């Protein structure tokens, strides 16, 4: 059994939220230790072009941007490590976190920045063409399909909102819904149904996304009649929800029914003193790199103030 390591600020996760928290915590002399988790750089590493992050006038590749964030955090003195938090115990005054099921860390403060993962349909073509016309974020990528035909799959508020957003940019939005009804709120349903260039397909499953190097078409199947049809498209958007990466905190941290961590409004504080949450693990509304980075800054400042009040 390895010796227990004691740290004053432990950051779990390495997207824009985690790295920004590391930059601020380092500058505040908290000597943060950051564990990158299973996907260093988070969701941005599966994003190609990022054009909406301020300070990159010509746009930037998602993975490249995360390398920049990491370098900056390192330059400030953050201790960045590869490893996955697999278990926590926040029941006492000390916050215990286990890395890769073996290494035990005791932290005065913990910043949770574990993000969320998009839910996918599970098609081989969907993963192969991810970033080449397949996307899980209309707000991030809709711009690249200006004037083109696109498809979106999903039936909730997010899907309706994203379909409406795309309808303002794209010539036609083909919306695939598995059942005979939508889950979205009445107002969102009406908005979609009253938008002339959104075409709704009920009882429809996505059979396959077609294209070699990029999305060229989609094959759909009516799950009542079994009839198949191919539609030429340039972009395919998956809007069937996100899964916050919060499982290991269950039982200690308050969450909503979907698993998003609850923070005290206007702060990054959770129900456990000394534990803070930032980025997509606690934000189901905006889910942007810039909002995640902003909340990472908040978490580091909240952690610094907490430690100061404890006399550290």
Keywords for this structure?
312 residues, alpha/beta, FAD/NAD(P)-binding domain, 2 domains, seven-stranded mixed sheet, five-stranded parallel sheet, 7 helices, 19 strands
Please describe what this structure looks like.
The structure is a single chain. This protein is α/β, with parallel strands linked by helices and 312 residues long. The chain folds into two domains: 5-117 and 243-309, FAD/NAD(P)-binding domain (3-Layer(bba) Sandwich), CATH 3.50.50; 120-238, FAD/NAD(P)-binding domain, CATH 3.50.50. 24% of the residues lie in helices and 27% in strands. It is built from seven helices and 19 strands. Strands 1, 2, 5, 6, 7, 8 and 19 form a seven-stranded mixed beta sheet that branches. Helix 1 packs parallel to helix 2 and helix 5 runs parallel beside helix 6. The model has no long low-confidence stretch (mean pLDDT 95).
